[in-house]
Design brief:
single chain; about 220 residues; alpha+beta; Pnp Oxidase, Chain A; 7-stranded antiparallel β-sheet; 4-stranded antiparallel β-sheet; binds flavin-adenine dinucleotide
Length: about 220
């Protein structure tokens, strides 16, 4: 579906950001950028007893949907494959905000929430989705590694969730202190947080080979 035809993030009654609506972002480009920058999503389900569970999973964005993979033995994945409704969030923490009061101290972030029900992928679509997830998490790696065997594919559930009910909230910059606190004689501002890769560490057999060029190019 054309990106223009899809609802803007936060445009539904369930996804409209009410608390600090000035931090809501409604363009789909930002939705995509946040999802492309993340590696891990938190996926929520409510089980038969009514108990909510929120589990972290790897994911990739493929156009206007999110892709996940997991074991056919996973309760989370079995429930999602059966059509349980879910709420998925991806959060990038960009910094700590050091205000002059406890109340105004906070975080800078980019976060996405998606509501919906997943569909299980099969056949060629399932195979392509597995490659797509690998390309997002480990770009360039697929060509070097053994592809999944039919038995491994059969043991894996691959799910897709359409990005048609979403919201985006972004918080940036320094503290928003109340006027009565502005004269407090302390430092205030914000402390950016940056993610980075460390140096590659080979396993015993891997040490015989050079670090792949694509790994050298990965940055965070
Ligand atoms: C890293 C991080 C730390 C945070 N820490 C706190 C904290 O300590 N205390 C606190 O009160 N809040 C915190 N927030 C904000 C929090 O996520 C909620 O936005 C806030 O609590 C308001 O909740 P609400 O249910 O009243 O939102 P409402 O505005 O009523 O939510 C309505 C709809 O807006 C959308 N929405 C709300 N929040 C988000 C979001 N974060 N991302 C995407 N869509 C959203 C959803 O679609 C939701 O259904 C934090 C957010 C992040 C990302």
């Amino acid at each position: 579906m054309d990106q223009q035809q899809l609802p803007a993030p936060g445009s539904g009654e369930r996804t409209r950001v009410r608390r600090l609506p000035e931090n809501a972002v409604t363009d789909r480009g930002t939705l995509h950028d946040i999802l492309d920058a993340g590696l891990m999503a938190h996926v929520g389900i409510i089980d038969e007893s009514g108990q909510p569970y929120v589990l972290p999973v790897a994911y990739a964005r493929d156009g206007e949907r999110l892709l996940f993979h997991g074991s056919t033995a996973s309760r989370l994945f079995r429930s999602l494959a059966a059509g349980s409704r879910t709420c998925i969030s991806v959060t990038l923490v960009d910094g700590l905000v050091l205000a002059r009061s406890a109340f105004e101290s906070s975080m800078n972030y980019r976060s996405v929430m998606v509501l919906g029900a997943c569909v299980a992928l099969e056949g060629d679509e399932k195979d392509a989705a597995l490659r797509h997830i690998s390309d997002h998490l480990l770009p360039g790696r697929w060509e070097d590694i053994r592809p999944p065997s039919p038995k491994e594919i059969a043991a894996t559930l691959v799910l897709a969730l359409a990005l048609d009910e979403s919201s985006v909230k972004v918080s940036t910059g320094g503290p928003d202190d109340a006027d009565i606190d502005l004269d407090r004689p302390i430092w205030a501002g914000h402390l950016p947080i940056r993610e980075m890769f460390g140096a590659p560490v080979p396993d015993v057999a891997g040490a015989a080979f050079p670090v792949p060029d694509y790994v050298e190019r990965w940055t965070r």
